[in-house]
From TrEMBL:
UniProt-listed PANTHER family: CHLOROPHYLL SYNTHASE, CHLOROPHYLL SYNTHASE, CHLOROPLASTIC
Keyword Membrane part of the UniProt annotation: yes
Alphabetical UniProt keywords: Cell membrane, Membrane, Transferase, Transmembrane, Transmembrane helix
GO cellular component: membrane
GO molecular function: transferase activity, transferring alkyl or aryl (other than methyl) groups
Name of protein: Prenyltransferase
Pfam families on file: UbiA
Membrane topology: Multi-pass membrane protein
Annotated transmembrane regions: 12-31, 37-58, 97-118, 130-147, 159-177, 189-207, 227-244, 256-278, 284-304
CDD domains on file: PT_UbiA_1
Subcellular localization, as worded in the UniProt entry: Membrane
Amino acid sequence: MNVYLRLCRFPTVFTAISNTLAGFLIAHGGLAPLSDFILVLVSTVGIYLAGMVFNDVFDVEQDREERPSRPIPSGAVSAKAATTFGSILMGSGLVCAAIVGLPTFLLAIALCLSVLLYDRYMKRTQLGPIFMGLCRTINLLMAGSAAADSVQGVFQQPLLWYAGAIGVYIVGVTLFAKREAVENSRGPLALSLAVIDLGLFAIAFWIGRFSSFFGIDLPVPGDTDQVSILFVWGVIFLTINRRVLRAISFPSPATIQPAVGVLLLSLIVIDAMVIFGFLGSAALPYSLTILALLVPAVVVRRWIPMT
């Protein structure tokens, strides 16, 4: 079992769960209907883990040279078994999405195609980070799609804005992670941070209620105090930037890899903050539930690497 958890980089799945909770809550205001939420959650988790598996399947030759301890090149799992495992995960995700409804099923197909295109073709191209960000954006939209009566109904504000902002954030994280083995790469790392911060500022623009000053309709119905939510956002912003700036100052795998872990785990904190800011004090139990996902993510990563 442990080898398959390593194959799918299991600690990272908690960020996908976090995004799914956030997307569903933004679209529905709660977890009802619970059956739809469970099906969407199983679907997004299955497709997400499948993407991690196929990443190793397509990278097997490179991993034999650069990461021989990974499950497939080490012989712990055969490429055929990994392919079967990934196909079962992805197929299960598609079936669950189809049960929810047509909009969710179509987004699940789009997510699967984006994941496979990234893993097989785009990862080593300049479009790679954009495709990775697209996967996160689709994941969030898919989480909220159960509330849509049509495909067009999926693309509603403010979920569309938040999904796009998280997509931009992940583009920056992916750009940053691609430099982990490159020495003296301060320029590209700084550019990555700029993209990450752009995503964070886009979130603050919405959840901090600044959009109304520009005539943009991005509703925030909750009763959370604006100063309080911006304070929490500021803490997240400073924490992320402090860790990333340290990696930029001393670029090496020893500083970049931990920073990538912080960037990924910060998704959980961001989702918790957004739900509290969007739905207000009544949503505190939801926010705490999302925040609690940090515990298993941090514990499990001690034995199973996130990257």
